[in-house]
RNA sequence: GGAAAGGUGGCCGAGUGGUUUAAGGCAACGGUCUUGAAAACCGUCGUGGGGCUCGUCCUCACCGUGAGUUCGAAUCUCACCCUUUCCGCCA
């Protein structure tokens, strides 16, 4: 959520931001008009309420019954007018909320300006794209061949874009989760285990609702929503709280499955396990003071990169353009890992500084010192990492000519094997 | 799922229609006293919105949430949510 005061005082900045994001700026003028209306009515309504409060007190002290009744009649009329104004206010505020809650965050000026992903900038490539003396196979070929991935049975159980992991396939994923969480802990993130079902307000605070309703799974019976990322529950861990300055930064790491309807990317990446309706992820999340969010952003990016380095995977860092940056983010780096089988750079992490955007929606504040005014914190989130695509990268990068896959050293203890052997 | 009790500021807790401007206490913070500390005493001590004369200012809202009754609601009515205890069920 943007600060209404910024919308009011710097409307042109907000308008330009919407245009840079390749978003519509149509609602802006309505918002400004509603804001003026709201304050006019509020002012008059408050004057009436003040009058009624004062008069009601008088009535309580009046000894004369007739005079009392006359005053009551007057106040009945005032009450009617208050009701009218409040009906108006309710209507205006609902509309104002509806419109402002769909405005995206203001971009960091360092983000390249451009309408879509074509304007993203690759800032670095770390490592060499591996070469093979045979033609590397794609994971959708290798996985079933080694008995790691079973696409048919996933479809049988649920439908398209669901799959089953078997044996060492399942074990490899579990190993990655344990490896990630241990690394996060060493990097200063506290592990949390969270509900995978949340209520509507939790999704609103994280910025998923109302705008991205179509991409979420919802249980109508209980009015619960399946989390699309751990970012959603973590954002609300401190919802409505005022944190002590000494408690910041607060860094969390959580493993959760993520559920996405993928309505917005229907038809894209249907092959393999790159884009399912359910996938696992370890997420990093930080609450900090505003002046520290840039440093925390760099730390989180470095922490995510460290994961890929330890796994010996080649990756590149992208700075996302205005038109490709997520709704709540001010600045986002994507990490993309090289998959030599399908010959693609796969996004395994997205590391964003969200500023006070989610903190305002979730009402998370901190106090610099006793007696100081509570201020909104900044929040940051980053994948650390998405599991299926990391699995793809490992399978495709560590495959050998005979069809077997070497397990990267840091995972061996967790998997309990050094190699996934080809089947006879 | 059933029954009962409950939900008031950071915490405890009073408040059943108007002297409440949410009492009182605890904790915290500032001060006086003290060689220092404790004690005692004095003071400060919620969030959000709006206004202008921008202040140690005025005003509105908020006592789980939402409606309702009333000139006036923390207080009365209705619905819902949550917590605790007991019962049932269950990994």
Describe it for me?
This protein has helices at residues 4-9, 11-20, 27-61, 65-100, 139-145, 151-157, 168-186, 200-206, 231-235, 293-310, 357-362, 387-397, 412-415; strands at residues 121-126, 149-150, 164-165, 190-192, 197-198, 218-219, 224-226, 242-244, 250-259, 278-288, 315-319, 331-339, 344-355, 365-367, 375-376, 378-386, 405-406, 419-420. It is an alpha+beta fold and 424 residues long. It folds into two domains: 4-100, Helix Hairpins, CATH 1.10.287.40; 117-420, BirA Bifunctional Protein, domain 2. Strands 1-11-12-13-16-10-9-4 form an eight-stranded mixed sheet. The longest helix is centred in the first third of the chain and has 36 residues, at 65-100. The chain binds one RNA strand of 91 nucleotides through α3 and α4.
What's the helix and strand layout?
Elements: H1 4-9, H2 11-20, H3 27-61, H4 65-100, E1 121-126, H5 139-145, E2 149-150, H6 151-157, E3 164-165, H7 168-186, E4 190-192, E5 197-198, H8 200-206, E6 218-219, E7 224-226, H9 231-235, E8 242-244, E9 250-259, E10 278-288, H10 293-310, E11 315-319, E12 331-339, E13 344-355, H11 357-362, E14 365-367, E15 375-376, E16 378-386, H12 387-397, E17 405-406, H13 412-415, E18 419-420
Parallel strand pairs: 4-9, 8-14
Antiparallel strand pairs: 1-11, 2-3, 5-7, 6-7, 9-10, 10-16, 11-12, 12-13, 13-16, 14-15, 17-18
This protein binds one RNA strand of 91 nucleotides through residues 38-39, 42-43, 45-47, 49-50, 52-53, 55-61, 68-69, 71-76, 78-79, 242, 370-371, 374.
């Amino acid at each position: 959520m943007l600060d209404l005061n910024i919308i009011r005082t710097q409307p042109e900045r907000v308008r330009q931001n919407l245009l840079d994001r390749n978003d519509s700026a149509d609602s802006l003028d309505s918002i400004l008009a509603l804001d003026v209306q709201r304050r006019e009515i509020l002012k008059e309504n408050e004057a009436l309420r003040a009058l009624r409060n004062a008069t009601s007190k008088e009535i309580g002290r009046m000894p004369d019954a007739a005079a009392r009744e006359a005053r009551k009649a007057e106040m009945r009329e005032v009450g009617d007018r208050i009701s009218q104004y409040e009906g108006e206010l309710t209507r205006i505020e609902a509309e104002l909320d509806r419109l402002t809650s769909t405005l995206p965050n203001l971009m960091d000026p360092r983000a390249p300006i451009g309408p879509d992903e074509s304007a993203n900038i690759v800032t670095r490539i770390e490592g060499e794209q591996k070469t093979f003396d045979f033609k590397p196979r794609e994971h959708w070929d290798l996985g079933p061949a080694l008995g790691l991935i079973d696409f048919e049975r996933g479809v049988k159980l649920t439908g398209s874009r669901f799959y089953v992991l078997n044996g060492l396939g399942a074990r490899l994923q579990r190993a990655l989760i344990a490896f990630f969480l241990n690394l996060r802990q060493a990097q200063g993130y506290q592990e949390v285990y969270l509900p995978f079902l949340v209520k509507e307000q939790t999704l609103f605070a994280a910025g998923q609702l109302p705008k991205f309703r179509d991409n979420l799974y919802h249980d109508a019976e209980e009015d619960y929503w399946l989390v699309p990322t751990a970012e959603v529950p973590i954002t609300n861990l401190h919802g409505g709280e005022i944190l002590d300055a000494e408690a910041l930064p607060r860094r969390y790491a959580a493993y959760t499955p993520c559920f996405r309807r993928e309505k917005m990317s229907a038809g894209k990446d249907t092959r393999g396990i790159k884009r399912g309706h359910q996938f696992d992820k370890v997420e990093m999340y930080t609450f900090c003071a505003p002046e520290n969010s840039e440093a925390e952003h760099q730390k989180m990016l470095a922490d995510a990169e460290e994961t890929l380095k330890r796994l010996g995977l080649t990756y590149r860092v992208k700075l996302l353009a205005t038109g490709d940056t997520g709704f709540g983010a001010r600045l986002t780096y994507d990490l993309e890992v090289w998959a030599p089988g399908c010959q693609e750079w796969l996004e395994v992490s997205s590391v964003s500084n969200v500023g006070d955007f989610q903190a305002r929606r979730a009402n998370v504040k901190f106090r610099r010192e006793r007696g100081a005014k509570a201020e909104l914190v900044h929040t940051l989130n980053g994948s650390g990492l998405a599991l299926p695509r990391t699995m793809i990268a490992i399978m495709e990068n560590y495959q050998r000519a005979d069809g077997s896959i070497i397990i990267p050293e840091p995972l061996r203890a967790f998997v309990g094997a050094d190699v996934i052997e080809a089947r006879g």
